[in-house]
Each structure stands twice: as C-alpha cells, then as structure tokens.
Amino acid sequence: MSSVEIPALTQTLLAAKKQKGLTFADLESLLDRDEVWIAALFYGQAAASEDEASKLLTALDLPQTLVAELTACPTKGLGPIVPTDPLIYRFYEIMQVYGMPMKDVIQEKFGDGIMSAIDFTLDIEKVEDPKGDRVKVTMNGKFLPYKKW
To answer: Which is catalytic among the residues 116, 125, 128, 134?
Structure first.
C-alpha cells in the first residue's frame, strides 16, 4: 500500500468511474480536456470550472453538492516524500538520474530558466513494440527565463 493517503473525493470519483466502466480517455470528449488533466482533477491536482464539474458529476451519477470541492483551488503536490508506488517512484528515479543532465541540456538550448508546469501539457501514449509495449511520455512546457532586476 502507498504511503500517500488518497482523499475521500478522489476515492468517490474513482469508484464512480469504475462503476460506470469509464476511462479517463472516455471523459475527454465530455469535458473537452485531456485525459491526464482529468486524472489530475480526480486527484485534487487541478480545479474544474463549475460547468466542467457539473458535467463530470452528472456523468458519474454523483451529487452536484461536490461541485464546490471540484472547483476549489488545489494545493498541488504530494509533499516532500519519496514515493513508494513503483510506477511513481520510477519518475522520481528518472529525475534523480537524468534531472541534472536535462537541466544542463535545457539551459544550453534556452539559457537560464525553467520549464513551466503551469503553461504545460502532458501526453501519455502506448507504443506497441514486438519486444514489449512501451510507454511514451511527452512533457511540453513553456520556457520561462529567469528575470534580472
């Protein structure tokens, strides 16, 4: 079991999605949002508009009283912990191994700055391969140079 406690709202949304036999990809056309963003909403890492929240709750047969929770500005991040879930840990491990190399390459190409996590998209694809299917993760963030003053 993971050391991260799953909020009650997340548990409710995931249970309703499972009960309906829906995937995050199924919810894309309903909300006109990417499946990764919708999953982030489920986990309290994004905020929906009232219209998006209402549509989602209707699709999941959940009470509209949950709109306020889905539209609240979230506190983002899981806290200063090393994740214990193996899949999530691998991303942590990737940053431990390749974080500094990525930083150097980005700064060689763009200069001193960061990749935005606000003006950002994330896409996850399944790439079929005869040696075993592969996971393709594409992160696309706006470059933000550090300002001098």
So the answer is: 116
What amino acid is encoded at 96 in this protein? Answer: Q
Matching residue, tokens 């909300």 = 31
Q: Confirm whether 93 is a catalytic residue.
A: yes
Same fold, 8-71 and 86-145: no
Contact 81, 89 (CB under 8 A): no
User: pLDDT tens track of the chain, all 149 residues?
Assistant: 445 678 899 999 999 999 999 999 999 999 999 999 999 999 998 999 999 999 999 999 999 999 999 999 988 876 667 888 899 899 999 988 888 789 988 999 999 999 999 999 999 999 999 999 999 999 999 999 998 78
90 an active-site residue?
yes
CATH tag, 86-145: 3.30.1160.10
Catalytic residue among 35, 90, 125, 128: 90
> What would be the CATH architecture of the domain defined by 8-71?
Orthogonal Bundle (1.10)
Catalytic choice (35, 93, 128, 134) = 93
| Catalytic (active site) residue 116 | yes
pTM of the model: 0.78
**Who's near 126: CB < 8 A, 6+ residues apart?**
133, 134, 135, 136
The full set of domain ranges for the chain reads: 8-71, 86-145
